Request: fold
Amino acid sequence: MNVPPTQTGAFIASVGVWFKGADGVEIQVDETDIVENKPSEVIVMIPALAAGEWTLRLTTQFSGSGTDAKKPHTAEFGAVLTVPAEPA
Reply:
């Protein structure tokens, strides 16, 4: 899977946007599905997710100083996304 480049253009496998399921499954958002990527705003298209509860996680090396942070840092969105089961 492609990973968005850091500011310096290097590819870091841990950097990106993920949906983590309650069962531990993690799905990374493809870089082509990142609509907006600004320091204060990230907009992504939600990939196809199985029914259940999902948490959004963002890992970045952005530092705001024009150079990448030495280590990636992660933010986890506080709300849980619930994907309902399809009706039978």
Observations:
- The chain has no helices and six strands.
- Strands lie at 16-21, 26-28, 34-38, 41-44, 52-60, 73-83.
- The two ends are 33 Å apart (CA to CA).
- Residues 1-56 form one domain.
